[in-house]
Design brief:
Helix content: 25-40%
Radius of gyration: 20 Å
Number of helices: 5
Strand content: 25-35%
Number of strands: 6
Structural class: alpha+beta
Order of helices and strands: HEEEEEHHEHH
Strand order of the largest sheet: 1-2-3-6-5-4
Distance between the termini: 20 Å
Shape: elongated
Length: 206
Amino acid sequence: MHPNSAFRPKQDDLAELLVREIGFAAIFAGTPDGPRVAHTPVVLSDDRATLQFHLARGNALTRHLEGTTALAVVQGPDAYVSASWYAEADQVPTWNYVAIEMEGAVRRIDDSALVALLDTLSADHEARAGANPPWTRAKMNPALFGRMTGAITGFEMRIAAWRPTIKLSQNKPADERERVAAGVEATGHGALAQLMRHLGGDREGA
């Protein structure tokens, strides 16, 4: 998490909204073999208290996560910011980005909860994809589905801490932010430019 408080979102639900929208996280934990990371789709509970995910049984983290404290990071758009885009002198290049960190204890979930997690994931993302009709596991041979789910393990993190960083040039005047947004957009990072224009003035109304 960035130490500058200007890069904390003013909106209480912004971090939650970004986690739900992006829906993919890196899970970090220490293991006897050293630090490890896994990448997985995630489901945030309605009360934002837990984060569920699944990993392959052969993943380097799977056998170590039960009962440990882990860090989940959901990464949004990012881009280099050239100092040449500023009108003010004596500026340095930087990087704008969105990152949501969640920390908490992890437990293994049982098979029924794992299937429910997979159903939720597929329903959410099939709706986004606009599939008609949407894919469901009812289209699969149940025995094959059972063998495939047997190759993965489901987990739930009880979120003890949220640490969001929404670094969108909030520490710069509005005219400088717009110049940076235009520069970012011109380098092909339209999503970040849009966030800068919609959220970059976040602190002004605080």
